[in-house]
Design brief:
This protein has about 500 residues and is an all-alpha fold. Among the domains are: about 285-340, no CATH class; about 340-410, Tetratricopeptide repeat domain (Serine Threonine Protein Phosphatase 5, Tetratricopeptide repeat, Alpha Horseshoe); about 410-503, Tetratricopeptide repeat domain (Serine Threonine Protein Phosphatase 5, Tetratricopeptide repeat). It is built from 28 helices and no strands. It is globular, with a radius of gyration of 30 Å. The two termini are about 45 Å apart.
C-alpha cells in the first residue's frame, strides 16, 4: 500500500511556521536524565514527595514537579502521573511544555489518543511552541493504536507547515507500518526520508528487514541488508536474527547458517535468539544431530541454553517419535538450573499422549498443579486427545469440567478429539448431542468437525442424517475439503447409491 493511500482520515492541525522553533535534541523522559540522582524510586516515594512539594511556599519550580512525573512515567504509573498533574494545576501551578509533553506521553501509553490531542490543543492555546517531542509522541500514540493513516496524515500536515522530523520520528512510523504488515509502505518511506537529508540507521533498516522476513519476502530483506553494507550502515545482532528467521522459514537452512560467518566478519556475537532460531529449524526438519551441534556451538560461544532451547529440542524428539530422548531433555532442565514452563510441560504431555503413555502424562499434569502452574488449553487438549485415542473417553469429561473451572474452556480442537472418539466407538447419539451442545455454547465447528460427524454417521449406518448434514453445508456455502467429500462418497458407496456418489 502506498503512502498516498494511507494518508486518510485525520483533519490537519492549524499551526503557523512561527509555532515551530528549532527543536530540542531529546525525547520524552530525556529531561530527567541529569536529575536521576533525585528521582523517587517507586510510586509511593513519588507521591509522598509530591505532596510535600505541593504545600511548600513558595512553590518549587515546575521543573521539580516534572521530575516527579517523569519518574512515574519511567515505572509506567501513567494514571498516577496524570492525577498528580491535575492536582498541582488545581493549586494554580502552571504546567510548561515539558509537563504537557509528559501528559501526552501518558495518554498515548494508556491508549487515550483523543485525550493526548486535547493536551496538544492546550499547548497551542497556552502559546507554547510544540517541539519534536510533542509531535513524535503523538505520532507514536497513533501508531500504538494502529491508526497509521492518521499518523502519516499528521506527519504530512506538520511537514507542510515547515516542521522537520528526525530518525526517531521516522523510526516510529516505520515500526508502526511494519507491525501492521505494510512493509512495502515502510520501504517507500525509507526512500522518501533519504530525500529529506535524514540518514536512516540500523534500527530502521532492521525493523523493515524483520517485517519483510515475517512475510516471507526474504529476497527483498536480503537486498536491503546488502544495501546497508554498501552504505556502510553496520548491521546488528537483531538484523542477522531477522534474516536467519526468514531463511529458516522458507527452508533455506544453509543460507541461515552462512550468516554466522557474516556476523563474525562484522564482529557481532550471536545471542540466545540466534542459536534458538537455528535449533528450531533443525528440530522441525527432524535433524536432531544438527540441533545438538548448534547447542554445542552455543555453549562454546558462552551462551547458556534457556527454556526455549530445551523445549524446542523436546519438540524435535517428539516429532521423530523419540519420546524417551525428549523425557531425558526434560529431566535435564532442572539439573542445568532451568525451570520448565507451561510450554515445556505441554510438549512432554503431548509426546506421552501420542505414544499412549497416558499415566505418565497425567503424572506431569499433577506435577504442574503441585508447582502452582496453570495448564493451558493446549495442555488439556493434548491430554484429552490422548485419552480419547487410548479408549479412555469416560475420563475426559472431568478434564473438560476442570478446564472450565480453571478459566481455560475447551475449544473446537478439544471437542473434535471427543467427537472423533465417540464416532469411532459407535456412540453416535452422544456425538450428535455433543455437536449440538458445542454450537449452543457459541463454539463454531470447523471443517474437521463436520468431516468427523459425517464420517461417523456414514460408518454407523445413519446415511440419511449424514446427507442432511452434507446438504446443509452445501447450502451454507461451507468450504469443504477432500476428506469431507470422501467420507460422504464412502457412505453412499457402502449403501449402494453409486449414482449419488458419482454426482
Amino acid at each position: 500500500m502506498s503512502l498516498s493511500v494511507l494518508r486518510l482520515g485525520f483533519p490537519p492541525f492549524s499551526l503557523s511556521l512561527s509555532l515551530f522553533p528549532k527543536f530540542l535534541p531529546f525525547y520524552p523522559n530525556a529531561i530527567f536524565h541529569s536529575h536521576s540522582h533525585s528521582l523517587p524510586l517507586n510510586r509511593d516515594d513519588a507521591v509522598s514527595l509530591f505532596n510535600r512539594m505541593l504545600y511548600m511556599r513558595p512553590s518549587p519550580p515546575i521543573l521539580q514537579f516534572n521530575i516527579i512525573l517523569g519518574s512515574l512515567v519511567k515505572i509506567k504509573h501513567y494514571p498516577t502521573a496524570i492525577s498528580l498533574s491535575k492536582q498541582f494545576q488545581s493549586k494554580g501551578i502552571t504546567p510548561d511544555i515539558a509537563t504537557l509533553n509528559i501528559l501526552i506521553n501518558c495518554f498515548c501509553h494508556l491508549g487515550h489518543v483523543n485525550f493526548a490531542f486535547s493536551v496538544f490543543s492546550k499547548i497551542l492555546k497556552m502559546g507554547y511552541h510544540p517541539d519534536i517531542i510533542t509531535l513524535t509522541t503523538l505520532i507514536k500514540g497513533l501508531c500504538l493504536r494502529g491508526q497509521l493513516r492518521k499518523a502519516l496524515h499528521f506527519h504530512d500536515d506538520a511537514m507542510a507547515q515547515g516542521f522537520r522530523f528526525d530518525q526517531v520520528t521516522y523510526g516510529t512510523l516505520v515500526n508502526g507500518l511494519c507491525k501492521t504488515g505494510e512493509t512495502k509502505a515502510a520501504l517507500e518511506l525509507l526512500k522518501k526520508i533519504e530525500g529529506h537529508s535524514i540518514k536512516p540507521g540500523v534500527v530502521m533498516y532492521s525493523t523493515i528487514i524483520d517485517g519483510l522476513c515475517k512475510h516471507n519476502l526474504v529476497a527483498e530483506a536480503f537486498n536491503l541488508y546488502s544495501e546497508m553494507i554498501v552504505k556502510k550502515i553496520s548491521p546488528n545482532v537483531i538484523t542477522f536474527n531477522s534474516l536467519m528467521y526468514g531463511f529458516c522459514a522458507i527452508g533455506q537452512l544453509k543460507e541461515a547458517i552462512a550468516l554466522l560467518n557474516d556476523m563474525k566478519m562484522e564482529n557481532i556475537n550471536p545471542d540466545i535468539y540466534t542459536f534458538n532460531i537455528l535449533v528450531d529449524v533443525s528440530c522441525k526438519e527432524g535433524k536432531m544431530k544438527e540441533a545438538k551441534i548448534v547447542i554445542a556451538a552455543m555453549v562454546k560461544a558462552g551462551v547458556k541454553p534457556n527454556v526455549v532451547t530445551y523445549t524446542t529440542l523436546m519438540i524435535g524428539y517428539c516429532l521423530i517419535n523419540e519420546v524417551k530422548h525428549a523425557k531425558h531433555v526434560f529431566n535435564s532442565m532442572a539439573q542445568n538450573g532451568i525451570t520448565p514452563d507451561v510450554h515445556s510441560y505441554s510438549t512432554m504431555i503431548d509426546g506421552f499422549c501420542k505414544k499412549k503413555m497416558i499415566d505418565e502424562a497425567m503424572n506431569l499434569l499433577e506435577e504442574m498443579k503441585c508447582k502452582n502452574m496453570n495448564p493451558d488449553t493446549v495442555t488439556y487438549s493434548s491430554l484429552i486427545d490422548g485419552m480419547c485415542k487410548s479408549g479412555r473417553i469416560d475420563y475426559v469429561w472431568d478434564l473438560v469440567d476442570e478446564m472450565h473451572d480453571r478459566g481455560q474452556p475447551a475449544d473446537i480442537i478439544t471437542y473434535n478429539s471427543i467427537l472423533d472418539a465417540l464416532c469411532k466407538n459407535c456412540h453416535l447419539d452422544r456425538a450428535i448431542a455433543l455437536f449440538r451442545n458445542t454450537i449452543n455454547r457459541g463454539i463454531k465447528p470447523d471443517k474437521y468437525t463436520y468431516t468427523i460427524v459425517i464420517d461417523g454417521l456414514c460408518k454407523g449406518g445413519r446415511l440419511k442424517i449424514a446427507q442432511e448434514f452434507f446438504q446443509h453445508l452445501l447450502i451454507k456455502g461451507f468450504h469443504m475439503n477432500v476428506l469431507t467429500y470422501t467420507a460422504m462418497i464412502n457412505g453412499l458407496c457402502k449403501a449402494g447409491l453409486l449414482d449419488k456418489a458419482l454426482t
